[in-house]
Amino acid sequence: MRKSSVVFQMVILLLASAAPLSAQTSTWVFVGPDGHLHYQTDSQGNQIMDFSFAGYKAGGVSLPNVAAQQTVSPSGGDDTAAIQAAIDAVSALAPDANGFRGAVLLTPGAFNCGGALNIRTSGVVLRGSGSGSNGTVINMTGNPHTAFNVSGAGSYQTTGGSAAMTDSYVPSGAMSFNVDNPSGFNVGDTILIRRPVTSAWISFMGMDLLVSSAGQPQTWLSAGSTITTDRIITAVNGNQITLDAPLTDSFDSSVLNPPGGTIIHYTFAGRISQVGVEHLSVIAPPLNVDISQPQFTGLTMGAVMDGWAQDITFQDTQNTVTINGNVKQATLENINVTHTLNHTGDRMADFGVSGAQIFIDRSSSTGNPGEWTFVTQGRVTGPNALLNFFSTQQAGVSAHQRWATGLLADNAQLPNAPNGYNGGTTGISYSDRGNHGSGQGWAMGWGVAWNVTTPWLVVQMPPGSQNWCIGCVGTPISGNEPGSTRPVPDGIYDSLGTLVTPTSLYLAQLCERMGPTALTNIGYDTSFCVSQGGGLPPGWSDTDVGTPGLAGGATFSSGTFTVNGGGADIWGRSDNFNYASESVNGNVTITARVASQQNTNAWAKSGVMIRESAAANSSFVHVFVTPGHGVNMQYRASTGASAAQLGRVAGPVAPYWVRLARSGNTFTGSTSADGVTWTPVGTISVTMVSGAQAGLSVTAHNDTALNSSTFDNVIIPAAAAGPLDGATEIFPSYTVQNRTGRPWDLHRSQRRRHPHYLDQRPRRRAAYRSLLF
Fold this sequence. Notes:
The protein is built from six helices and 60 strands. By secondary structure, the protein is mainly beta.
């Protein structure tokens, strides 16, 4: 159930069409000649990070429509107990295979609630019948309280030993780094990356000089404390650890060692998931209270992973939406906050974010003035994204205090934000807050404002870091650190006064990473993709086989295929997965390295397949890598038959090579750590038509998730039936020339010893196709 808020229709226009003809191209993120995004790096490798990992299920996934299990109608009295009882009843149900227990449906009408409504169990949704005048209205009554509290319990609990990061410098935006001892760390492990707050770093940032107006020293961050980043390991390759989302801050050993960055396992038993609140409106009594007094607040989310709120209008709440620091992968869509009363005194935040991978989409803050529009708090590690945001408040998008990293404000319209340099109320405020508060100091690093329109801009450059304002329309302001006479250098203003392409950085990055379907999944048109159609090589196509719960997709860039697959499994009598493939005839061998694989389930499958057709019950042979069960070979001997296991090589995880060869109706699978020495997995006879499909397959083995896997060194050499009939397609990374003089990529380390390497000497009359771009 996806409904648009009437209040927000004006904001949809921000991205309703492509950028104007006068739009320029950024020097930091731009579309290259190959039609894909390219990034400028600084001398240490820092770049604008990929913000598309922000959101429910790490972005690009439709918000679920969970079946209602309880229905509640207004009583005319206080409805808090009745609604809470329904939530508790659904909480007591067993979750389904996708982790959902069910929704509580509130019928149209006005409910009176004198207390908070609490969701404390995974898989529970509170749903109204719409946020409009004919939908569901919750009138907050009684003493000040929070309308919705969506919160688990407990905290991060570290387990086992730690490993030290050994790189002298890890740039912002990096997805991998090296550690001294990777033993004990495996694909799928949840880890905390701990960045120490050292005296050397505090001094390097100039934050040891903060002094209050009374002349007393102030503490920005305490030396000896840490800033933690919550991630999942997606690959372990020697001493290199690869993560599920980019690091938002750099790790510079010259100011962080000792003790240096470390990683450690964690558990979080009380954190809940698959929870949401949607399709209703909330009206609070219009009160002008001080920030130190109790308030009617809207939504608090804590100890949640994969949660959401959508299509909610809040009226006269204060500190309306608060996302705590232990929340990961959440979407707030069409959340609109409006005020009918001026607020005086210290501002309160309509949106306050401290979590990681939080996506606020098509939302707004409007009405009478006096509130912060959007703020980040301290020690925040994103990437977090604010897309298509609109506000009439006399404030903007503000990093509030004590070092948040990785925020994107994308296509925000903030027309009333004032020239409030010292107060931090400008439309964009990525700045050193100096001695404000009790020493809020540097509030933002590695932040990006993209195609933002607002009268005034403050974007400053922290020591050893950067902030960008790209395609911003407004007037930049420079100044001294508040509370001192020390000037603060400006950050990067790129294409100031003129919008840039791509129109939306978040949407372009999301399409680049997951394909056009990811945009339609979240309600946007695929025109925001910089490479239309996913950019698969000629002759290749992509399809969802069966009926996966989430639509998948595939892209190709610089020799690498990215395949995003949903679905419960490739197994039984019918399959559900994403398949990027091409038609082949006769004998064929397909080789690929599964370069990376998300751990959506220990039995997630990413590999090479030869399949008779795209029908869900088609015969197939499949060699694939899993996160938890090594490399396997499975097959379906005939249409509609049950799939069967043939062989397994225990232990390997991505990155790892797989190969499947067909000779007549005999199929042989093998696997390799290096693409040179191969281990047999199995051989089976399956009767299959000559004209089959060969390609790359991914299933999440989890119908509520998309598994994003990458493949490189993809080779499909088909046997030549006669002169000029044969063809070879190869998609690695080192360019040589084939007989026709066209470029032909082959990884340098494999070019002389790879079993399918063909040099320039014509051994027979055959045409070689190279589909590299």
